[in-house]
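chain below, 72 aa
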Amino acid sequence: MEEITKVQRNYHGDIISFQTSGGRIISYRKAVLEASEGLLNGVDLRENEWGEYEIYSSNASGQGFDDYPTIF
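prediction:
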């Protein structure tokens, strides 16, 4: 099972894509889909106030991907 290793952010600081331990670069939406299917290890999904799912790192802080390196 793959894990998220790196992130790419837009100029607003929002995550737009991830790199996996297998070297794949996947969009945020694809990561949410794969996490919901149990294909990504080390992540949690939470529903926001608009009913959309957001992906979070399930590391000790559980807050997000602030400590992850960038893809580029």
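The first strand starts at residue 2 and ends at 9. The radius of gyration is 11 Å.
thats it, cya
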